[in-house]
Amino acid sequence: MESEFTPDNRMNSMMADYSHIKGWGIDADLENDPTYPMKKRTDEERFGYTWERPEQQPQDVEILTSTERNNMPAVFGTTVPPSGLSGMIRRYAYTWSESDLRRWIPLILADRIGAGEGIIDDLAHGKIPNIFAERGWTAEMKYNRKNFLLKVAAVTVVAVGVTALIVNRKKISGSLKSHR
């Protein structure tokens, strides 16, 4: 039997004992604020921005802005404007809200594609990329050797497994054709 929702029932459920839950009601005592001293309470939040906005940086490249912002930030990065396939994906991603996965998943994909575009751009300009150094493998080898070697071993096992699977698949499909 379900209990009827009444103000008395609600009050009884609010007065239930939750003391067995670790941390329950930790913020109930206003004099014992757990965020102190991380947050300095000055009551300025209710006034909004009270500082003078910096001079607006001139915009001479494409800047992607959030759908949640109604103005440009005062300063912004201009070193890598959106371009190529990764830029198209970023433009699509920025049409969605910051709380939407349709924004973040394409941005992750665009980042990976952008890394590949950078390598292609280096090769197109006659520069052979030093992937070992750019990925920080020298530092990882020096300071995190154990995990680096584990990663190398894992990649090697996966590569050997995929190669063996491809070779065996060709052998199996070849033997099936000979039995027909």
Task: Summarize the structure in words.
The protein is 49% helix and 0% strand. It has helices at 7-14, 84-93, 101-124, 131-134, 137-143, 145-179. The protein has 6 helices and no strands. It starts with 6 loop residues before the first helix and ends with a helix. With 180 residues, the chain is mainly alpha-helical.
Descriptors:
mainly alpha; 6 helices; extended; 180 residues
Total beta strands:
0
Count of separate DSSP helical elements: 6
* Percentage of residues in helical conformation: 40-55%
Which residue ranges are poorly predicted, with pLDDT under 50 across at least 5 consecutive positions?
A: none
Q: Which class of secondary structure composition applies to the elements? A: mainly alpha
The major beta sheet can be summarized as: none
Structure in a nutshell:
By secondary structure, the chain is mainly alpha-helical. It has helices at 7-14, 84-93, 101-124, 131-134, 137-143, 145-179. The longest helix has 35 residues, at 145-179.
Write the layout of secondary structure elements.
Blueprint: H1 7-14, H2 84-93, H3 101-124, H4 131-134, H5 137-143, H6 145-179
Helix pairs in contact: 2-3, 5-6
